[in-house]
Amino acid sequence: MKKSIYSLVLADEVVAAADRMAYELHTSRSNLINQILAEHLSCITPEMRMQAVFSGMEELAEQFRMLEQTSAHIRALQSRLNYKYKPTVQYAVELYRMQADGADGCIKVQLRTQNAALITILEQFFRLWIKLEERHVPAAKGIVYRMAPGRLERSIRNPGVKETELGELIGSYIQRFDFYLKAWFAGISEPQSTAKQLDDAFRKEMQTIKQTI
Prior knowledge:
- By secondary structure, the chain is of the alpha+beta class.
- The protein folds into 2 domains: 1-43, Arc Repressor Mutant (Orthogonal Bundle); 55-208, Yope Regulator, Chain: A (2-Layer Sandwich).
- It has 6 helices and 6 strands, in the order αααββββαββαα.
- It has a 6-stranded antiparallel β-sheet.
- Helix 1 (12-24) crosses helix 2, helix 3 packs across helix 5 and helix 4 (116-136) packs across helix 5.
- It is elongated and about 70 Å long.
């Protein structure tokens, strides 16, 4: 949705109230007023679509620790690994206002640790996970992955579903990723055997799933 600059004459009290609400919602005054007018006039904005997607992810709150919202287009959550020092994995879902290179957003995974050995184990799983998707998820063709030390970014593509359904698919994806990640750490003493077990389990699971991101 294209945006342009307009001049409006507003009462000081209205602007003050809008600023307070915008601060509470971690957004700008302009964006807040745009959303209010869009709702009143029954217009659908990209921000509304984002909120619908995030609403579909609500069930994740039961399994993960949801972090404080700092942006209207990002939701972040944490999961703790059952491993020494109890490291924390952070998942961040970022949605774009407009498609970028065919992607509707991205999922970012990051391990909150400075331990080099732990980061290496995580990156081994990242490489395994990419191979699992490339082997067993037809929809993964064209997905873009970016790796950095202790960090993985994976693009999101809407398979042609409504926003709430897309949120549910993203939620299921994060749950699946987290489950396999914890299984990898649990079997890290035998990496080859664990990788084979995860490959078998992932292949069978994908045969029962009709749609994924």
